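Lecture 7 notes: from sequence to structure.

We start with a single chain of 180 residues. Read the sequence below before looking at the structure.
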Amino acid sequence: MILAAGEGRRMGGTKALLRIDGETLLRRTVRAALEAGCDPVVAVIGAWDPGLEGMKVQTVVNSEASEGMASSIRRGITVLLPEVRAALILTVDQPAADTVLLRNLLALAARDPERPAACAYADTLGIPAILPRRLFPDLLALSGDRGAKAILVREATATLPFPGGEADLDVPTDLERFKR
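Now the structure, written as tokens:
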């Protein structure tokens, strides 16, 4: 599940449509998820054209995106609920989250499918993260601009080091720094 519905106020526009090497952040993230073996892939987006033609991805518009990240998580889980045993949650604003990282996270989660698995960076746990179905009610209960961090911290979460995972794209200078 790719969270991409945010308005990108600090960035000055929709982050998902920003480009690195000619490819939008959303398309880049979808490609990484597909190449890692994720199926299905759901992108929770805003009311704009995602530009994902030719990719095996389901898009779902989050009309409540102004509430914050929790609304996108709830929207994505609702779509995934009937189909999956676990959900990998990632965002478009962590461009270092690539296919290799996602494959390693999936392998870690496969060792104990009932245990969440998350990336570790900057002395904390965060996304990308995989949460088993048993935690979907907790994800559906989230509200505001909160993600799954509290759930990951509460659980006996398996961790995967993600050097540089704290570097996300929030303002235009972040994008320029990453491109360099």
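The chain has six helices and nine strands. Keep this in mind for problem set 3.
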